[in-house]
């Protein structure tokens, strides 16, 4: 992880500075090897936590601001300049509110669920490469770890729904389970294409291979654009964002699994949701948008983690934009979309990625792979969809 | 329609409301769900009951006028008109021409308000929380400003009087309506483009909540909900009350009567309303804004009864009055369109998803002030 030829104080190393300092001080004090490495990991974890907790606070404000602008409003602007203190005010409010536990709740599970929903999100954030030098935990099997940990979220959502002892949370949990399980399949299958082409499960390695300009990113290959789009849609569904926000569909089931939560437990759900959003959007950036790689060669002066966070911000802004625009799907439409469109298309990217891998990058492989993914895409999107999709109607007028 | 179900232990009984984000007030649906499918739905209302009819029997005719504002609080001016119409029938009061034109302008503006707000609310029910609603309310705000200028109140107008209106149009008001009408068409185009082109909205609303036209007629359903099913019944054309026979406008009709048709019919109705408004502004004559012979103090209509009805934005809005010759009505009865349109809710929702039930309720376009009175 450490390269000694780059100076410690360069902007590239800025996020690693605390970890390095702690390691250096401990080593100079003569601490044993295991203590140095454990302390280093703990400081690295705190850096990630600090960065993303700040980002969570900022995003909760930015989301409200963006939605407000999209809806012809102003949004929070009372607490501090431009509403910048709004997250602090929200935090104080959440902490000081009464914590209500329903009489029929299973107390232990009711308490555990919000804690367990934050945990996998933080764990998943640990394996993502944020910069050339900055991967908190550079696991060999990073992608596998990410999915393994990420699927724990379902567990805590269902826990929350079940333990609340109430009906709306139960309905929300039922929806959440069916939705998350359905959309996890195409999510993992499309990520498999990347694994096949890169030949590794290590996320830093996957990013390393996409270097050299934006045309080397996975999304700029014929299979990658399809896989990337599918992956993007799945990330929205996994993060329970609009138009796939059925588990908490407020116009139908109040707040889904969070209905019976109040105070800081409720805030924890939000935290888990936003951290999960960062993690899954970060994975999308890592797998398809080149991670921390600069879009053009010759931009080496800019620290690489800035590129990563810039891309992450763009992806998250697109989520906000979609949320401000679209109504929500119905549960059967959601499932039909997953099983009839997403999964077949996702499976199709696998042979496409395989062909791409063996033919190599070049015009010939474009000519072979592009029809392979494009023709079924057109079939599904135009012909199959035309049969299912509703049409606009014309209306008549009464005489007289 | 009925769904066979024997194993009732497996059903999930959910009480949607009276505190629920999308029951449009304090309405409650006792729903029995099989998974997410509605197998039984019982509407419960009365949470906003405030004895409107009985209070009106103890009050003079005029003092019920402000109360009618609170029936359908989205569109108070049509409530005013329906009540004024009933009393004018009862007492045989003539309405001057200028007042009739003012009433038509106000009623059509109210229809615009109601249908525009409806677009926002139904999108909110579908899950596009806020966006469509805020754009709809931006336009509604302009009309409310006009109402404030004319009546002094944005919503609780209390403006119509027996034999006319309370005051004359202020200077420049007519021109302001003209500019509003010119600007409204483009807004409708924009809104329609956003909504109708959206595939999620299409697939959510089409083939949801339709009933055969006969059932609707037998159930007494009126308004856009009935016309969406293809039945041509608009009291503006049937009764030709006021001066509606002088204007050229058409009645849009739907085919299937599902939620989508109900949305689209309201769009088309708004365009027809704009036509009426343009004609009414052009033709608005000079003259009295209220019949000078109509008595305000000590108003005692002769013994008898009368039923006055208008085509409210939500359907047939009627007032039935029985007079015994005293200053108070002997019987005062409102026929609220929201309440009667709500009666077929269960038939529309059975066998559909919970999410569908929510948008069907939204497409009926109820206001609880009117349902519960």
Describe this structure in words.
- The complex is a heterodimer of chains A (400) and B (373).
- Chain A is mainly α.
- Chain A has one domain (97-385).
- In chain A, 66% of the residues lie in helices and 1% in strands.
- The N and C termini of chain A lie far apart (81 Å).
- With 373 residues, chain B is α+β, with helices and mostly antiparallel strands.
- Chain B has 15 helices and nine strands.
- Chain B has helices at 52-58, 65-69, 76-91, 97-126, 131-151, 173-196, 199-205, 213-218, 224-228, 235-238, 259-283, 337-342, 345-349, 354-364, 368-372, and strands at 12-16, 28-34, 37-44, 160-161, 164-165, 251-253, 304-312, 315-323, 329-335.
- Chain B has a three-stranded antiparallel β-sheet with strand order 1-2-3. Chain B has a three-stranded antiparallel β-sheet with strand order 7-8-9.
- In chain B, helix 4 runs antiparallel to helix 5 (131-151) and helix 6 (173-196) runs antiparallel to helix 11 (259-283).
- Chain B starts with 11 loop residues before the first strand and ends with a helix.
- The mean pLDDT of chain B is 87.
- Strand 1 (396-398) of chain A pairs antiparallel with strand 6 (251-253) of chain B, so a sheet runs across the interface.
Notable characteristics:
heterodimer, A: 400 residues, mainly alpha, 14 helices, 1% strand, B: 373 residues, alpha+beta, three-stranded antiparallel sheet
CATH-scheme architecture of chain B:
Orthogonal Bundle
The biggest sheet of chain A amounts to: none
CA-based gyration radius of chain A: 23 Å
- Ends distance of chain B: 30 Å
Strand percentage of chain A lies at: under 5%
Question: How would you sum up this structure in a few lines?
Answer:
The complex is a heterodimer of chains A (400) and B (373). With 400 residues, chain A is mostly helical.
């Amino acid at each position: 992880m450490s390269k000694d030829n780059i100076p410690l104080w360069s902007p590239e190393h800025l996020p690693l500075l605390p970890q390095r300092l702690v390691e250096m001080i401990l080593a100079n004090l003569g601490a044993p090897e295991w203590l140095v490495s454990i302390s280093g990991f703990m400081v690295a974890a705190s850096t990630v936590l600090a960065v993303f907790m700040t980002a969570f606070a900022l995003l909760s404000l930015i989301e409200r601001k963006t939605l407000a602008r999209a809806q012809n409003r102003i949004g929070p602007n009372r607490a501090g300049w431009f509403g910048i203190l709004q997250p602090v005010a929200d935090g104080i409010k959440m902490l000081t509110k009464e914590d209500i536990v329903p009489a029929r709740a299973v107390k232990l599970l009711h308490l555990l669920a919000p804690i367990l929903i934050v945990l996998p999100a933080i764990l998943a954030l640990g394996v993502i490469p944020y910069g050339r030098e900055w991967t908190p935990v550079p696991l060999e099997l990073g992608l596998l770890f990410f999915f393994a940990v990420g699927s724990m979220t379902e567990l805590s959502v269902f826990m929350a729904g079940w333990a609340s002892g109430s009906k709306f949370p139960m309905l929300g949990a039922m929806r959440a389970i069916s939705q998350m399980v359905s959309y996890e399949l195409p999510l993992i299958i499309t990520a498999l294409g990347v694994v096949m082409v890169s030949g590794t499960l290590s996320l830093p390695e996957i990013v390393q291979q996409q270097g050299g300009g934006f045309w080397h990113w996975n999304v700029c290959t014929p299979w990658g654009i399809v896989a990337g789009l599918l992956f993007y849609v799945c990330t929205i569904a996994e993060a329970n964002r609009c138009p796939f926000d059925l588990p908490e569909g407020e116009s139908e089931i109040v707040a889904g699994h969070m209905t019976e939560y109040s105070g800081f437990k409720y805030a924890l759900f939000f935290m888990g949701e936003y951290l999960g959003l960062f993690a899954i959007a970060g994975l999308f950036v890592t797998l398809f948008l080149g991670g921390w790689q600069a879009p053009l060669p010759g931009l080496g002066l800019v620290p690489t983690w800035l590129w990563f966070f810039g891309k992450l911000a763009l992806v998250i802004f697109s989520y906000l934009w979609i949320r401000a625009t679209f109504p929500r799907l119905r549960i059967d439409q959601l499932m039909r979309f997953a099983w009839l469109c997403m999964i077949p298309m996702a499976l199709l990217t696998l042979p496409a990625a395989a062909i791409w891998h063996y033919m190599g990058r070049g015009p010939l492989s474009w000519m072979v792979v592009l029809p392979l993914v494009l023709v079924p895409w057109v079939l599904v999107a135009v012909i199959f969809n035309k049969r299912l999709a509703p049409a606009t109607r014309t209306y008549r007028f009464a005489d007289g | 329609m009925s769904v066979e179900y024997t194993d009732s232990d497996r059903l999930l009984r959910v009480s949607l409301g009276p505190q629920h984000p999308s029951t449009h007030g304090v309405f409650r649906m006792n729903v029995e769900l099989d998974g997410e499918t509605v197998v039984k739905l019982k509407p419960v209302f009365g949470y906003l009951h405030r004895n409107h009819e009985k209070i009106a029997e103890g009050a003079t005719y005029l003092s019920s006028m402000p109360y009618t504002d609170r029936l359908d609080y989205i569109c108070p001016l049509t409530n005013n008109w329906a009540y004024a119409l009933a009393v004018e029938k009862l007492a045989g009061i003539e309405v001057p021409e200028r007042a009739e034109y003012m009433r038509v302008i106000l009623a059509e503006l109210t229809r615009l308000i109601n249908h525009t707000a409806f677009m926002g609310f139904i999108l909110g029910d579908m899950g596009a929380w806020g966006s469509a609603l805020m754009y709809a309310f931006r336009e509604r705000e302009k009309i409310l400003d006009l109402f404030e200028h004319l009546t002094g109140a944005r919503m609780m107008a209390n403006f119509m009087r027996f034999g006319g209106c309370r005051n004359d149009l202020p200077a420049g008001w007519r021109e302001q309506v003209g500019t509003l009408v010119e600007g409204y068409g483009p807004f409708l185009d924009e809104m329609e483009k956003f909504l109708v082109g959206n595939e999620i909205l299409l697939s959510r609303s089409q083939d949801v909540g339709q009933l055969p036209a006969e059932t609707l007629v037998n159930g007494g359903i009126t308004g856009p909900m009935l016309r969406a099913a293809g039945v041509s019944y608009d009291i503006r054309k049937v009764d030709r009350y006021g001066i509606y026979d002088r204007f050229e406008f058409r009645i849009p009709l739907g085919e299937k009567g599902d939620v989508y048709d109900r949305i689209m019919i309201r769009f088309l109705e708004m365009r027809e309303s704009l036509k009426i408004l343009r004609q009414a502004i052009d033709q608005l004559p000079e003259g009295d804004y209220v019949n000078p012979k109509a008595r305000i103090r000590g108003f005692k209509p002769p013994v008898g009864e009368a039923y006055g009805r208008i085509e409210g934005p939500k359907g047939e809005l009627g007032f039935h009055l029985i007079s015994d010759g005293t200053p108070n009505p002997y019987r005062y009865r409102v026929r609220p369109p929201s309440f009667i349109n709500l009666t077929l809710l269960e038939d529309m929702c059975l066998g559909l998803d919970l999410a569908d039930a929510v948008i069907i309720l939204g497409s009926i376009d109820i206001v609880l002030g009117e349902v519960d009175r």
